[in-house]
Structure prediction request, 187 residues.
Amino acid sequence: MKKLKRLAAVLLAGIMALALFTACSDSDPGNPEFDAKVESAYQEALKTKFEKELENGEAVTNDADIKRLAIEHIEEKHGADSLTGEMLWKTDGDGKTMVRQVMLCWELKKDTGKGYVPLFYEAAKTAAIKANSTNVRALLRTVNEEIANAKKNGITLELTALGVGAKTIGGKTYVAIGFELTNTAAQ
Prediction:
């Protein structure tokens, strides 16, 4: 009888340990349907805000490379308690012919009003998704500054793509938005 109780106790402890490890798994299935809705809302906001900057039809669609970079950035920064302005951005490309930049959408820290925290949506608490206009304006300002700074150095950059990536992690859907600039003289 004692051996049976010990065996039962060991089995129960093993099952509890397995349950604990399963709960700590990093395989969050996310919410692909809600991610797509968030991406669509931001893509529409980018399209509206960047209307005069867009010189070709490609820039209106959600660029796959920018989306990939955005999701990578979300996965790296989503749980941060505080972000600096530099941490909001991730860059990809060779820097000579083309550069892609994505910005993790953010809001100011509520407790201090200084610094940033990742902006997120919760599907259960969000009736309508509205793109954060401050983030969209910040992206437009950055594009215009990059183009102007390049022009001062005799380089002509063209906005060639826009993109959005959204990913649900732990019930919170984070979003990053980005752009691609191409050096027209380097082609």
Summary: The radius of gyration is 22 Å. Residues 109 and 115 are 6 Å apart (CA to CA). The beta strands are 89-92, 98-104, 106-108, 116-118, 120-121, 157-169, 172-183.
